[in-house]
Amino acid sequence: MLVTNITTGLDRQTKDIVKSTVPLLQERGEDITKRFYQLLFKNNPELKNIFNQTNQRKGNQSKALANAVYSAAFYIDELEKIMPQVKQIAHKHKSLNIQPEHYPIVGENLLAAIKEVLNDSADEEVLVAWEKAYSVIADVFISTEKEMYQEAEKTIGGWSGFRNFIVVDKVVESDVITSLYLEAADGEPCAIHQPGQYITVKAEIEGAPYNYLRQYSLSCAPGGGAYRISVKREDGLNGHPPGIISNYLHSDINKGSILPITAPSGYFTLDSQDTRPLVLISGGVGLTPLLSMLESTIKNQPEREIYYIHATQNGKVHAMREAIQKLDKKHDQVHTYTVYDNPTDNDNKFYDKVGYIDYNYLSTILPTNNAAFYFCGPKGFMQSIYKSLSQFEVEDKDINYEFFGPSEEIKD
Question: Which residues does the annotation say bind NADP(+) (predicted)?
Fold first, then answer.
């Protein structure tokens, strides 16, 4: 369904009223979305399983939703301009198995939050306009996600909803990262993913108040007959609580365990038609989607130059180190670089630089800025990489990145 056709259902007055709330949303948007989630979980506690409660506590989800609501209001009369954002969110929704019946629940609680937070600034006319606008925006998402579900079902080995997979191998990659290899429990083929995509794992923990859903990048090349996820154990440092699901996957899940997962999703994917040099830059566990891109490019574009740069604390937490070194030695077109910010005494032969990846380092090891750049890692790392690439005069169209969790602003 075309967005331009849907938006014709809104009259000019409704659009003008919604656009008039843009300054208020810019000022109070996060207050609205924080209150929205409070109301949603109070009125519909069964939906807690869909939302990552860690992101809720950190405020990341509220901020991401506030940005989405603001964009929708700003572009209410030309929603085609936010379709990239819609598709990005729709990929997340598909991975979480969001259904059309969820949208009225969200709308009811969002309108209640707008009314409560804006108070006198949101009279009946504003609320009616936003109710109409939300209906249109919801239809855009429902239509987009319907197409995604249908495409997933039509794909060879594809499926919708959750499908049981068996853990056929479990490999410790570092002190904090462990890989799980997954094959379909029914013995049937599984869909071939695009390099960079992720799956959602449903953790059904005995005694827990609800099931947990967590998204993990597929860290292997497509087409190998099995999926691999490489999970960092979150130990709860610096005042943060331990990660419930990451610890569960590390401690309780073993060979033979069954994990329900959704089909691969995600917009952060490799453009395999591009033949220019490929530059992959990862920080910590951000290496997972980039490993899929690395292995896939070696397999399918053996002549393409690849520069893989990884930053982490030291050798103890450096996952996949030996596997990547083997790829470097075996393939002349692969060039790998490792940066440790706190190396141990035993790490001398494992890293190329102490400190951080910055513009000076990139400009020294990369022969050109006319390349395809992909990066992933913690927020601060990604902001630094983006700034360095801008200094390196890389065009925006050649810069690709993904946040783990809700999308955030990468520019300082």
Answer: 284-289
